[in-house]
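Reopening closed ticket. The problem is back. First fold of the pair:
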Amino acid sequence: NPVDHPHGGGEGRQGRGLRRAKSKWGKPTGKGQKTRTPKKYSNVFIVSRRKVGKKRKG
């Protein structure tokens, strides 16, 4: 049923149009969407890659 999904409804077979992709539970998902909680305690321990290159040099 259309009510069971955020992209449901509409006349006939329809895509989601310009709306951003969502999961069945209404959370943004897919297409490069970050789903990790920004305030998660273990974010402190995750080390991001060090950017190296011509643009980086002063």
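Second fold of the pair, where the issue appears:
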Amino acid sequence: MKEVIPMATVSFDKNIVVKEPEAIERLVEVLSSSKEAKPINRKLASDEAMARGEKLLKQCLSHSKRF
């Protein structure tokens, strides 16, 4: 038994082939199970944290332009 599951990502599409019946059952189980959403750490997503992240990103990009 062969099942092809198309998987889309941001950068490419890739077909994943699952051959083993146990693996197919496990994959279906995982994909169909509902998990509780993890709470968002508001400290990590604060305005201050976002501003710090943007500043660090700009610094990294400015360093990479030199090379």
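Update: turned out to be a display glitch only; the data is intact. The longest helix spans residues 47-65. The chain has a mean pLDDT of 81. Please close again.
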